[in-house]
Specification:
With about 60 residues, this protein is an all-alpha fold. The protein has two helices and no strands. The protein has helices at about 35-45, 50-65. The longest helix has 14 residues, at about 35-45. The N and C termini lie far apart (about 75 Å).
């Protein structure tokens, strides 16, 4: 009975979501003390942005200094 073994691989599935021009592939975890978190939250509320966006803006501002 000459059965031929064949392994088929499934193509990688892309995650569904909104398309973006700037994908964020790196996840970063950090611990803040209460004072630092309060500063970040005040900034984010004033600028109407999320915490991650507030951190990104702060990091980009390091380049300007």
């Amino acid at each position: 009975m000459g059965f031929k073994s064949e392994v088929k691989t499934m193509p990688e599935k892309k995650k569904m979501g909104r398309p973006t021009d700037n994908p964020k592939q790196t996840q970063f975890s950090i611990r803040f003390d209460e004072e630092t978190l309060s500063i970040l939250d005040r900034f984010c509320k004033k600028e109407n942005v999320s915490r991650p966006e507030g951190v990104r803006r702060a990091v980009r501002n390091l380049e300007k200094e």
